[in-house]
Every structure is written in C-alpha cells, then in structure tokens.
Design a protein that fits this description.
This protein is mainly alpha-helical. The protein is built from 20 helices and four strands. The chain is 53% helix and 5% strand.
C-alpha cells in the first residue's frame, strides 16, 4: 500500500500534547499499529492515506494539516473563544476541547448555509435595552423574560426555542456515547462562546430539564453581562463570588422571578423537614421548569431560609441514590434536533431542498444521520 510522503511528525506531537495522549494511547484510539506510528514520528513514510485519514478524523483536522512543514500557529488554529475557555480551566478533558472545536465548526456551517439561503447574518443579537450593569440583576432578569417572551408555565424545549429565536445557538450534549457527548463523569455542566453574532450556549445532558434550564440561563447570563466565553463546572453553579455569582443570581431570577415566589405558601413550608421539601415544591418545579434547589436558593437570597437548612437539603439530596434512568426508545432521527437545535436542523434541510448542499453533505452536518432517518426527520417538521 502506497505511503504518504511529507508528514510532519511535529504536528502529530502537537496534537498528542493538546489531547494529553501518549503514542501508545493514540495507537489504540485510531487503530493504527504502534510500530507504524513510531516510524512516522522518526520521519519515515509509514502511513497510508486511510491511516492519515484516521488521525485527521480523531484530531478533527484535515489531512493537509499534517503535511504542512511549518510549526503549528496556535493563534491561527484556535479562536479567541477557544483560548478563553482553555485558559480558564487548563485541565479540562481533551474530549471536551475537541467538542468545543466541533461546535465552532458547526457554527461556521450554520452561518454559511444561512448566507447561501439569503438570510441576514450580520445582525447583532445583543438587545440594546439590556445592559451589562450588575447593579440590578433582578430588573435585568425581568427584562430578559419579556425579551424572550417566556410564559409562566413552560418546559425546557419551549425555553430553548425562545433563546434560539434571538439568534443564539443552543447545543445539548448527547446522552449517548459519541462525539457530541460530555462524559457523565466530567464535572463540566456547560459553556458559552461569545460572538457579536450567533453566540453559542452548550448544555450538558442532565437528569432533569430543570437543571438543564438553569445551565442555559447561567450561560446566557455570562453572554449578557460579561460578553465573554466561559466554561462552568459543578462548583461554579454554587459560587458566591465574582462573575459566577452574577450568572447564578441572574439564572435564578429569570427562572423564578419575585412574582413567582409570591405564589408559594411559605407559612406552611416544612422548614425543619428537609425530606419534605421536594414534595412541597413539586408543583412549582414542574410549572416553572426548575429544580427544588433553585427555589430554595431564591428563598435563601430572600432570607426566607437559613444557610443551615439549605446546606442540609443539599447534603441530604446528594446522599440519595440516583433514580434509575431507563434507556427508553432511541429515536435516531430526533437526535440532531435535540443536540443541534431546531434552527440549525431546519437550515440544513432548507439548504438541501434548495440544492445548496448534497444529501451526503446534509447527513454529515446532522451527525451522519442515515438517509432513512434523515427522510423521517423531514416528515416531523423538525420538532422534538
């Protein structure tokens, strides 16, 4: 089999370092013999086109990347948004950084397809009436609720569509293993990529829609107040300091504004019965698409609850076994909508129908959806 000439081993080494992989680990990941990789790293012509293609796919790079004789220019290769995230948390998993790059490429695809369809892609998403002033977060939260058009009884899908309707891309990581999943053991809950047009929010698939809604609004808070890219782990969602405190307070006030709190009968609240909190607040949680903890956090901020009781609930909740999650029916054709959002999927299908892209290209943009599933997706009118 003919071997590719001119492969730059320094570029393979750079990719290894970025993903924190040994050559032995890389061999397993890409299914290429260790001896072959060792020969390449010594400057030998040892890789076939197929094997180089495996490397490119794994590292999310084109084959020409490895044939460039120049050193890697990180500033050209990585966006300021990517660098902002990796600088905040240098130890984030290599699979997550790969996901960030993948999402950035999907954003570029989305903008390119919109341009092909004659859509306006130069409009800024940030509303002029919403300022970055952190002096009155509650007032800003009320303004954002009106801006998004959120109703008093809403689920996560409706809330997500409201955010997407403002020109913000919202990704939800896949619950199944694959290139669009944030690992269940990874502490990262979400991240946001700030752009003047088409910013991005990515949410880790979680046990409840309430938790996902809070993550989405937390990241929206970063985009609105801080106008920068952020990556957030579990600890950030309990922070009482700095920018994370602002994002948490904003998310809580958007999801549970003061007028919602007035609907709760706190006189009969089982304050000393921590186990009873979930049951007492269940109706409100379902109506507002929030977790019990979000309401308790609002109670804490309004001094309707002590820190002792709040922390007591958190400790008890953590000790409870996680509810069994049935695998359920996996409708493959629905997954692109869940992961990429309705606007992205609809734009891909519109581009396909207008013959701007081929069926194969549409499939590649929709997580390599099989043709039969793609056709079924079209029939559902791109709704979950």
């Amino acid at each position: 089999m003919e071997k590719i000439q001119g492969i730059n081993p320094q570029r393979i080494a750079w990719c290894q370092k970025e993903r924190r992989l040994t050559l032995e680990q890389l061999s397993v990941e890409v299914d290429v013999a260790l001896e072959t990789l060792q020969r390449v790293m010594k400057g030998k012509d040892a890789l076939s086109a197929g094997q180089l293609g495996k490397l490119g796919k794994y590292f999310n790079r084109g084959m020409l990347f490895f044939l460039d004789e120049n050193p890697v220019n990180e500033k050209k290769l990585h966006s300021p948004q990517f660098r902002s995230i990796t600088n905040q948390k240098p130890d984030i998993a290599s699979k997550l950084t790969a996901l960030v790059e993948r999402i950035e490429k999907h954003r570029q695809v989305y903008i390119s397809l919109l341009e092909d369809l004659g859509e306006d892609v130069d409009r800024e998403w940030h509303p002029a009436k919403i300022t970055s002033d952190i002096g009155n977060i509650k007032q800003t939260a009320d303004t954002v609720r009106d801006w998004l058009g959120l109703t008093d009884n809403i689920d996560f899908s409706e809330m997500r569509r409201a955010v997407e309707g403002k020109g913000i891309m919202v990704f939800l990581s896949n619950g199944y293993k694959g290139q669009w999943q944030i690992d269940k053991k990874d502490p990262i809950r979400g991240f946001s990529l700030y752009y003047p047009r088409f910013p991005v929010i990515t949410i880790k698939k979680q046990r409840s829609e309430g938790a996902q809604a809070f993550t989405m609004m937390h990241e929206l808070g970063h985009l609105l107040f801080h106008r920068d890219s952020f990556v957030d782990d579990d600890k950030d969602f309990y922070s009482y300091q700095g920018k994370e405190k602002v994002a948490n307070e904003f998310a809580g006030s958007v999801l549970v504004p003061d007028r919602f709190m007035e609907q709760v009968n706190f006189r009969n609240f089982p304050m000393e019965d921590i186990v009873g909190y979930d049951g007492y607040l269940k109706e409100y949680c379902q109506r507002w698409c929030v977790s019990t903890e979000v309401i308790l956090r609002r109670m804490l901020n309004k001094r309707l609850m002590t820190q002792k009781n709040y922390q007591g609930y958190r400790k008890w909740k953590k000790s409870q076994p996680r509810p069994e999650q049935g695998s359920g029916a996996r409708y493959r054709y629905k997954e692109p909508v869940r992961v990429f959002g309705e606007p992205f999927v609809r734009t891909v299908l519109d581009a396909l129908h207008n013959k701007h892209i081929t069926l194969a290209k549409a499939s590649s943009y929709l997580d390599n959806l099989k043709i039969k599933d793609l056709r079924r997706l079209e029939e559902t009118n791109v709704r979950i």
